[in-house]
Design brief:
The complex is a heterodimer of chains A (293) and B (165). With 293 residues, chain A is of the alpha+beta class. Chain A has helices at residues 14-24, 37-42, 78-82, 92-98, 104-109, 112-118, 124-131, 149-152, 228-231, 241-253, 265-286; strands at residues 7-9, 28-31, 50-53, 63-66, 69-73, 135-140, 143-148, 153-155, 158-159, 166-173, 180-186, 196-204, 210-218, 225-226. The radius of gyration of chain A is 19 Å and the shape is globular. With 165 residues, chain B is α+β, with helices and mostly antiparallel strands. Helices cover 30% and strands 16% of the residues of chain B. Chain B is elongated. Chain B starts with 9 loop residues before the first strand and ends with a helix. Classes of the chains: A alpha+beta (293), B alpha+beta (165).
Chain lengths: 293, 165
C-alpha cells in the first residue's frame, strides 16, 4: 500500500524542527532513517498529518568522545556505528551489535536515534544501550533533558518522548579499559529482529570479582529491558557460570515475554535462561582483571 | 516548469539516474522505487513487500545499497541513483555479474534478480574470493522464491572470478 496523505516538511536545523514539532504536536511524526517508519506508513499503521523529515538537519550526525562519555548524534547512520573503531572498554559492544541489525542496506539509512525512539522491544540497539547504562538527550522548544534507558523505555513501542520533543543524542558512559562484552542473538532468519538477544558487559576487579555488570535484553518483554535485578546480585561475586545460570533461571521465571508468531513466551524464557549465562561467560572471558591490565 | 522546492504535498526534484539527470514534480508520498518505475519508466527495479524485507527494490543511492521502497522520492533530490538498467558490460553487453547469473542459473522468474545483482555489485566492490558463507551472509537481505539460492551463490562466486575490478 501507499502512505496516507500528509503534509511534508524538511527542516534544516534542530530549532526549526523543534518549532515544527511544537506547532503540530501529536499530529507530527519525525522521519529519520525511515527503515521502521516507512513500513508503518506504507501499511497505514501510522497516519501522521505532518511528516517532519530530519535528514537535512545539520549537526546530528557524529560519534565523539567527550571526557568519559561517548556521544552519538541521533542521525548517525547505523552503518557508521557498525564501523566505529572503539577504544578499549565496552563501547565496542555497540559496533558488534550493529552487525545484527537488519541488513547492510537497512543500516545505510537506519539511524541510531531512530532505533531508540522507535523502541521495538525486539531491537538490538536499545538492549545494548541499556546494558551499557546509556541515556538519551531529548530536546524541545523549552529545553533539554537527559533520560536514562530505564525511564526512557516505557512499554510496547512507547518511550518517554512527548509530542513536540526530539531525541537528539545517545550518551554511553565509560567502562573500565579491560571490560569484556558480548552479544548473542537468536532469530529465525539472519537479519530479523531478535526472538531474544542478550547484550552483556562486565568489568572485574583484581580478585576476579564483578566490579560492574550490565545485561540488556531484546525480545524478553514488551520493551527493551535492563536485567538489573540480575546484575545487582553479581556485583562483588565471582561470576562463576553456575552462579549466573541460577540467577538467569530465577530472572527468566519472572519475565512476561511476548507470545506471538515469532515465538511463544516460554520459548523466549528458555532463550533468556540459556543466552544470559553464555553471553556473560564470553564477556567474562574477554574481560581482564585490573591486575593483569 | 514551476520549480517548487518547499511544497508540503508536491515537490520538484532533480535526480541523476544511471548518469542522466531528471527533473520532475512528485507527490511527497511517492517512494523512490515507484518514482523510478512509473515516472522514469525504468521498470527493472521491482516492488515486492513495500516494507524493506525482500530486497527486490534494491538500488544504489550515492553508491550505497538501499531499499527503494523505504525512501521517498523527495528524499532523493540531488542524489545519484544506480538501477539495474545502469549496469552493463565493457562492450555494452551484459555486466559480468549478469552474465554469471545467466550462465549459473541464478534466476528463474527474475523478480528478485535486479535487487540481487545490485547487492552483489555493491558487495563485490570491496570483497574478493568470498566463501559460500560470506556470500550467503551478503545476500541474506534478498528473498528469492524460485531458485533455492544455490545458483545465486554459484553465480556470485563466478562473478567474483570473472569481474575485473
Amino acid at each position: 500500500m501507499k502512505p496516507a496523505p500528509y503534509a511534508y516538511h524538511d527542516p534544516t536545523s534542530v530549532s526549526e524542527t523543534l518549532d515544527l514539532l511544537e506547532q503540530y504536536g501529536d499530529e507530527a511524526q519525525v522521519l529519520a532513517g525511515g527503515q521502521s517508519l516507512m513500513p508503518m506508513l506504507n501499511f497505514r499503521l501510522a497516519r501522521p498529518a505532518h511528516l517532519v523529515d530530519i535528514n537535512a538537519v545539520d549537526g546530528l550526525d557524529y560519534i565523539r568522545t567527550d571526557g568519559d562519555t561517548l556521544r552519538i548524534g541521533a542521525m548517525t547512520r547505523q552503518r557508521k556505528l557498525e564501523r566505529f573503531d572503539a577504544p578499549a572498554g565496552a563501547w565496542g559492544l555497540l559496533a558488534e551489535a550493529m552487525g545484527h541489525v537488519g541488513h547492510p542496506s537497512i543500516r545505510v539509512r537506519g539511524t541510531v536515534g531512530g532505533s531508540m525512539a522507535h523502541a521495538d522491544p525486539a531491537a538490538e540497539l536499545p538492549a545494548v544501550v541499556a546494558a551499557l547504562g546509556g541515556e538519551v538527550t531529548i530536546q524541545c522548544v523549552d529545553g533539554t533533558r537527559p533520560v536514562g534507558t530505564d525511564d526512557f523505555f516505557e512499554g510496547f513501542f512507547t518511550t518517554a518522548l512527548q509530542p513536540g520533543e526530539l531525541l537528539t543524542e545517545v550518551r554511553i558512559p565509560e567502562w573500565p579499559a579491560d571490560s569484556g562484552y558480548c552479544m548473542f542473538e537468536v532469530s529465525r532468519r539472519r537479519g530479523d529482529f531478535a526472538q531474544v538477544a542478550v547484550a552483556a558487559v562486565v568489568a572485574l576487579d583484581a580478585d576476579g570479582r564483578v566490579h560492574r555488570a550490565g545485561v540488556g535484553l531484546a525480545g524478553a518483554a514488551g520493551a527493551p529491558v535492563t536485567a538489573s535485578g540480575l546484575t545487582d546480585q553479581l556485583v562483588g561475586e565471582v561470576p562463576a557460570n553456575a552462579t549466573v545460570v541460577e540467577l538467569a533461571a530465577e530472572y527468566a521465571a519472572g519475565l512476561t515475554p511476548p507470545d506471538d508468531l515469532h515465538g511463544p513466551a516460554e520459548y523466549r524464557r528458555h532463550l533468556v535462561r540459556h543466552l544470559v549465562p553464555r553471553a556473560m561467560a564470553r564477556a567474562v572471558d574477554r574481560a581482564g582483571s585490573a591486575s593483569t591490565a | 516548469m514551476t520549480i517548487d522546492r518547499t511544497g508540503t504535498a508536491e515537490r520538484t526534484i532533480s535526480v541523476t539516474v544511471n548518469g542522466t539527470r531528471y527533473e520532475r514534480v512528485v507527490s511527497v508520498r511517492r517512494s523512490l522505487v515507484d518514482f523510478i518505475r512509473e515516472d522514469l519508466q525504468l521498470t527493472g527495479s521491482h516492488v515486492g513487500c513495500e516494507h524493506g524485507v525482500c530486497g527486490a527494490c534494491t538500488v544504489l543511492l550515492d553508491g550505497e545499497p538501499i531499499r527503494g521502497c523505504l525512501l521517498l522520492a523527495v528524499q532523493a533530490h540531488d542524489t545519484q541513483v544506480l538501477t539495474i538498467e545502469g549496469l552493463d558490460g565493457a562492450d555494452g553487453g551484459l555486466h559480468p555479474i549478469q552474465r554469471a547469473f545467466w550462465e549459473q542459473h541464478g534466476l528463474q522468474c527474475g523478480f528478485c534478480t535486479p535487487g540481487l545483482v545490485l547487492t552483489a555489485y555493491d558487495y563485490l566492490q570491496d570483497q574478493h574470493a568470498p566463501t559460500d558463507a560470506d556470500i550467503r551472509e551478503a545476500i541474506s537481505g534478498n528473498v528469492c522464491r524460485c531458485t533455492g539460492y544455490q545458483g545465486i551463490v554459484r553465480a556470485i562466486h563466478v562473478a567474483d572470478e570473472i569481474w575485473e575490478r
